[in-house]
Amino acid sequence: MNVTGHIEALPRRLTVDLAVSEGPVLLGANGALYGLSDDGVPGDAVLEPLKITSVSQKPEGGAQHPGGDALSVSRSFFRNGGGEINVLMQDVYAQWPYEDLGIDDYLPKVDKIVKEVSAGPSGDRFVYIPFNEPDQIWYDLGVADQQRYEANRDRFFRDWKTVYERIRAVDPDARIAGPNEAAYHARLLTDFLAFAKRENVLPQVLTWHELDSGSLRDFQEHYDGYRCIERELGIPPLRISIDEYANRRDLSVPGQLVQWVSMFERNKVYANQAYWDAAGNLDGNVVRTNIPNGGWWLFRWYAGLTGDTVGVTPPQPNTVDTLQGLASLDISRRQAQVLLGGSDGDADVVVHHLPRSVFGRAVGVTVAEAAWSGYEGHHAAPHVVLRTKLEVADDGSVTVPLRGLRRMSAYRLVLTPGGTGTPAPAAVPWSASYEAEDAAVTGGRIQTHGTVSDPNGYAASGTKDVGPLDIASSKVDFTVAVPADGMYDLAILYGNQSGAPATQKLSVDGAEPVTVTYPSTQNWHYRARKDLGVELSAGSHVLTLAKGDAAVTLDRIDLTARTGAPAASYEATLADIGGNPSYDYSSSAGVGTGALVLRKGDKAVFDVYAPRDGYYTVVPRTSAAVRLTVHGEQVTATPSRPLRLYLVAGNNRVTLTADHAAVRSLDVSGEGSTTGALSYQAASAVLAGGARLVDSVHAFGGSYIGELGNSPSSTAEFTVHAPTAGRHLLVVHYAHDDRRDNGHAYNTDIVSRTADITVGAGAPRRVAFKNTWSSDDYWTLGVPVDLEKGANRVTFGNASAWAPNIDRIELGRVVRQS
Q1: Which of 14, 456, 587, 674 is 20 to 30 A from residue 440's alpha carbon, by CA?
Q2: Is 303 exposed, middle or buried (0-12, 13-18, 19+ CB in 10 A)?
Q3: pLDDT tens figures, 69-95
Q4: What are phi and psi of 696, to 5 degrees?
Q5: Rounded to whole angstroms, what are the CA distances from 635 to 436, 575, 597, 613, 653?
């Protein structure tokens, strides 16, 4: 009770019971519908860490969307450890809803799809989905009138049996999924399963969609009801795949996604996020081609769960937009992990039944936050917000207090044996957020998006943004207050659908403004993030963002005290592993989660974030020498001795091996220096066959290479001079805005371009370049290449289609010797 006599609100309590096993971690809820658009989009470095169990794609050559063909994307999916691919067979058709030309038109298409898929070396890793949302499309099975329902139902059942048997005639071992309703319908599922059992055409995978905010409340009832139907009909439990889930407001938002993932993992079902916007970004969780956002980090944490999931009791089970979570216990690694999020305020995580034989009398606790950074907003490695050591109570429990949770964020809590020593406290810089709708707005409107009642609106911080800010007087004045003199990092969440880079004028307390340039986004509400620095004195200030050359929408700004160059410590005990390394928690000093002990045959793989392409300082904290491999280059690293490595913007997979070494962490710092890198502008290339220089104010050197490709003779050849031979990263600055309107209002059907890159006399390598949202926005894509010392020819072309426009290229030696 406080001094005024009022009862203080108690923190909500999320309870974890390590003694209640739910079975091995499935990782079933990490899939995506049209999450892949091409071989290489998204990039391997963001695909492999997620350990994706299933994706859903269209048949090869299907007309429904311009990309995402199942066989084409299977190459990157399978080489990065992907599980299986659902083939949406009706996506062979062009229209939405699918044109209904009758079953006789469909059957030859079915034959072709199955023959192509089953002929490949990985044919057993595909699942056929013959019908998509038959409760609405072709059959109208959701009709209320029982007589009409029965007539429509019987037609669907006849067609299901016909197509099922047609698939099995081509591929006797085919796995088939259905009925694939747009929503859960107990009436249809009861009739369907009874029919399918009687006619021997049961699907191997039972599918339906959960596409409403109410699914966070209703799914458990749907799941339990379905399992009851199975039991009543005497059908052994089928594998369940919710092959479309979540709304626009959920995608990319860690605090929303953790609510969906927890309920699917708890019930051990597979699930794919829905495709509401553009293909190739794992449904809003990958920025550009290779850059994580907050949603990606949530799924990266999910992929890091090992052992068994255990019982979790949230404050309000099966309730929309509330604190939810999932947890795992891995006795062999001596780790417990909890993922949680979905509400603001304070919470206590109470963990029961910590086995003393595993954790001892004290546990090290590390808590990190994955914040919402927008659909197109980069997110660095999540910050550790709490690191401590706690005594385990006599009853085997421990309580971890979490304060100031943010609804759109997710949090990872890791428990390990306490060991000796004291963990280093988390270094959390001062930070504050300011909503645009709460600022002083001139010449703009406050708009509401992404609420429970508008679930397919885009996510917005606080459910509101300000736009369109499109008249000369448009501005937003943010009143901010900072605690000390110094440099602050300013992050602006914005949207730009103007068709080119757009600008605003930033001024502090009415002083001379500076220009802020915003890259294009998919639309006004598909949020991205712009970072810059501002010098502020202690106290209050007014930061003004006023219209520049085009309209921009504003959502929120974040101010964070700058404490030095960006740096992150990646803890070895949380890395991906290969072989059979051991875990040493004898000391909890420093980063606090012990050491990973590598021997011959073992490896640790770290996911290292770089804010931009360039050189970074990398320090392995090890007890002995290790071998470090990145981008195909290997270097021997001695303990605590810095290395200078060239990393690409976004995620970089860094592998450590050793004969025998204890590894505590991999420490990475820097802002991406380009000192020592090679740079060649478009004008330095030799052009042939119609490729030409095009003037552009947005290109780095005032021009770019356009009309490249679409002919064997159309090429651009750069001569680059390497001081030393070896593995380099070729960073291509490119742009293009190819689209194909397939008539779907809720999809942006962007198209990737490809280029064949040839180095010297080597074989050409085909590389996919994702659409950059406008032809005036230049992105980068890093490609590892081997160069000889001295002059090397690097040639771009594409004999059969247009290559992207190229602004310039840069090359950096992967390992830079000091």
Answers
A1: 456
A2: buried
A3: 999 999 999 999 999 999 999 999 999
A4: -155, 130
A5: 48, 19, 19, 20, 14
